[in-house]
Amino acid sequence: MSSYDYDFLVIGGGSGGMAASKKAASLGAKVVLFDFVKPSTQGTSWGLGGTCVNVGCVPKKIMHYSGLVGHAVHDAQKLGWKIRNEGHEWSELVDTVSNHVRMLNFRYRVGLKSGDVNYINGLASFVDNHTIEYTTKSSKEPVRVTAENILIAVGGRPSIPDIPGAKEYAVTSDDIFHRQESPGKTLCVGGSYISLECAGFLTELGYEVSVAVRSILLRGFDRQCAQKIGNIMEELGTNFIYDTIPLSITRLSNGQLEVSLRRGTGEVFTECFNTVLFATGRTADLTGLNLSAAGVNISPDGKLCVNNERTNVSNIYAVGDVCEGTPELTPVAIKAGELLAKRLYGKSSAEMNYSMIPTTVFTPMEYGTVGLSEEAAITKYGEENIEVFLTEFKTLEFAAAHRYKHAKFGDEEDIDSNCLSKLICLKTKDNLVVGFHYVGPNAGEITQGFALAVKLGATKEDFENLVGIHPTDAESFCTLDITKSSGEDWNAGGGCGGGKCG
Which residues of 206-219 are buried (b: 16+ CB within 10 A; e: fewer)? Predict the structure, then answer.
């Protein structure tokens, strides 16, 4: 008979916490899950499910899709459909997103109940390494409960720089997806994937969008692919202001936000926007947990150092974005949480493998990748041991329908090659593929399939021996025969998308 109230106590009702709690309960553990959403600086709050479901992956993907549909209207007209593009209604999109998210919130609550997980909508903090106390909206005094094992899965929240007006007037990804007011002319601050994804779908929805970038786009990703993303977004109408940071935000009497910005040269200038969105990084949401009472150490970066998800305290674990050095991705938190529960309550020894994890950036032309960037591969193995195979081309359907650049580039000028396919291979191991990169439509779907091959140790020859599906963008990976080191032009012609017509 356990001397604790629960076998497993989870703090955080996001993807990792939900997955771990349900798996532990299914294996016979007595489980309680605490979740409490602290409102954003603009007062936005949401239901059960964490960042991904409420203010991340799910609403982002729907808005991304809405932007793609807008471009598809142009294609439809070129392909014979008698339809008109009469513009976009932001509030209808927000209603669709919010309704879907609320449905998921409800399903998650039902899933916890049917899975024998006790869900408490309360703000939890540590008393010691086996005890937490919590408050709810209805409780007058804190309530204490004990558990043998405790999991911290509270995720992260957007960081807002400490400049005048930022916290008062700027929004983040915590706000934009459920904001009823049309964003209008928007400034996205930051070169992160969140910034580019938001800038991308807002541009495609017809808004005037600028991105203020301090240094480079998509830090940590392959440089060539990041630049490709930037070039395509510029062609589609997004304005990039490089080497620039905001200094202050002031609300004018007409409701607009006047932003003071400084270039790297020192020049200061101002511009007015309707919306300013910061996407300059995220911070682990550890404030208020009172981790010191439990003896849990926090790294200088404000995260938790873990070994196989265990913190420095033997019965306290962590998964997801709070962990130092792990990819901040929903599927990573889910997999790590489930494997942890299996080890604790299912007699499993399987550990999380944090290498070769695929991901996709959902910009207008998506970017999917698994493995090393070209720069990381060179750093790890040496430039002389790396071979890069690549091609750039235009999607067949886009070429046929004549996808145009933004009107600011002139009348009816076709976009340039919208796809980049790239394999980074290790010459000393029979051209083992150590990096897979694809920029183009449906990159998430394409990368998910190829990721298994890369994870299982596919070589360049394996890709060559695979017969492609024609005509697709993905088949380009079966016919890569130009290397970057050769100096040959890797831009393909022919008009058959990623394949060869003869």
Answer: ebbbbbbbeeebbe
**Amino acid (one-letter) located at 412:** E
pLDDT tens sequence across 208-245: 999 999 999 999 999 999 999 999 999 999 999 999 99
In the block, residue with structure tokens 């938001």? 198
The pLDDT, as a whole number, for residue 71 is 87
Q: Give the Å distances, CA to CA, from 60 to 198, 200, 413, 489.
A: 8, 11, 29, 36
Is 31 buried (19+), middle (13-18) or exposed (0-12) by CB count in 10 A? buried
Contact call for residues 372 and 379 (beta carbons, < 8 A): no
Q: How confident is the model at residue 502 (pLDDT cuts 50, 70, 90)?
A: low
Q: Known catalytic residue: 470?
A: yes
Beta-carbon count within 10 A of 104 CB:
17
Residues forming beta bridges with residue 419, ordered by sequence position: 393
Task: Read off the pLDDT of residues 332-354 as tens digits, 9 standing for 90 and up.
Answer: 999 999 999 999 999 999 999 99
Nearest alpha-carbon partner for 134 in 283, 281, 9: 9
In sequence order, what are the residues at sequence separation of 6 or more whose Cβ sits closer than 8 angstroms to the Cβ of residue 66?
Answer: 88, 93, 201, 204, 205
Query: 155, 159, 158, 123: which is closest to 322 by C-alpha?
Result: 155
The predicted model gives 415-437 an average pLDDT of 97
335 within 8 A of 352, measured Cβ to Cβ: yes
Q: Select which of 71, 74, 88, 470 is catalytic.
A: 470
